[in-house]
Structure formats: C-alpha cells, structure tokens
Design brief:
The chain is mainly α. The chain contains 4 helices and no strands.
C-alpha cells in the first residue's frame, strides 16, 4: 500500500546509491566529516576534508567494514 506522500514511499537516503544523489557533489556534512575522520584514524586511511557527500558516504561504508571497533560490536 502506498500513501499520498511520494516522499514517504521513497527509499531512505541510506538505501539510495550515493552516485545518484542530487546533492552528492556538495561538500560532506559535518556529521559525515566527524565520523569519517574517526573511521580513518581507526583504519589508518588518509582523511580528505574536501571530499564530497557521495564519496564520503561510500568511504564510510567501506571503512565501517574495516573498523575493529565496529567488528567487535557485532
């Protein structure tokens, strides 16, 4: 069943491909930057503060799989 609100029926941003985001080319958000910097420190990956939203999201997904803290929480 669908609602009359198309946004309510759309998948969340977490389910959308970052390459298709209309704002993906904008600078990453403060929350993304903070989390990504932490993940980079935990995994030894270089942090690029000039990364855009889409690339930051993809790198976050990649580094989450490498983070010992997140592996140990599972």
């Amino acid at each position: 069943m669908t609602s009359d609100n198309p946004k309510a029926d759309a998948p969340s941003n977490a389910e959308k491909d970052p390459d298709t985001w209309t704002t993906g080319g904008e600078p990453m958000t403060g929350a993304q930057g903070s989390y990504l910097q932490t993940l980079c420190e935990e995994t030894g990956h270089e942090f690029d503060p000039k990364m855009n939203k889409a690339d930051a999201s993809k790198l976050i997904d990649e580094l989450q799989g490498q983070s010992q803290r997140l592996k140990n929480a599972s």
